[in-house]
Amino acid sequence: MLIRVLIVLAILAIATVVALWWQRRQGVAREVERAGALSSATLGAPRGYHATFVQFSTPMCAKCPPTAALLTRIAGEDERVAHIEIDAAERLDLARELEIMRTPTILLLDGDGVVVSRISGAPTETQAREALAAVPRTGTDYSI
After folding, report:
1. Which SS3 state, helix, strand or coil, does residue 78 take?
2. Residue 14 CA to chain centroid, in angstroms?
3. Which residues are CB-neighbours of 95 under 8 A, at least 6 positions away?
4. What average pLDDT does the segment 26-32 reach?
5. Pick the CATH number of 28-133 from 3.40.30.10, 3.50.50.60, 2.30.29.30, 3.20.20.70
6. The pTM is what?
7. Which of 15, 48, 85, 101 is a Cys-bridge partner for 81, taking CB atoms 3.0 to 4.6 Å apart?
8. Rounded distance, CA 140 to CA 118, Å?
9. What is the C-alpha to C-alpha distance for residues 85 and 72, in angstroms, rounded to an integer?
């Protein structure tokens, strides 16, 4: 009987550690190795001059609509920033190419369309703003 209780307690302890680890990773922006740029044609919408939030969503994702509203609001505060939402189920080719394994996943592109960071899970407003602030400036702030 005591051995069964100890096994149950060990399983609960492991599950708690895994849950805490998983929760800490949600919404955290991680820098990625820079590779080729994503064009506006590939994304199906115009990129932002300074940065672009590219959000991969699915119809069954409960956290995707509030994440889209948050990113749209943040992007709306600066005309040089854009938010593009892509249905991963409809663009499976692009999701596979970019190794999107869950939704929401947000790729943050610089002004040249290069992925500079990746956010898995729904970010908080602070996390999204910090990721945006970390995007390196490309080009100039002048427009013609």
Report:
1. coil
2. 28
3. 56, 86, 88
4. 63
5. 3.40.30.10
6. 0.76
7. 48
8. 24
9. 9
Tokens for 23, please give them.
């929760």
Distance CA 107, CA 101 (A): 13
Q: Which helix (H) or strand (E) holds 2?
A: helix 2-25
Instruction: For residue 114, give both structure tokens.
Output: 């290069």
Residue type, 134: A
For residue 144, pLDDT beyond 50? no
Kindly state the tokens that stand for 109: 């592109």
Provide the b/e sequence for 59-80 (b: ≥16 CB within 10 Å): eebeebeebbebbeebbeeeee
The values of phi and psi at residue 46, to 5°, are -70, 140
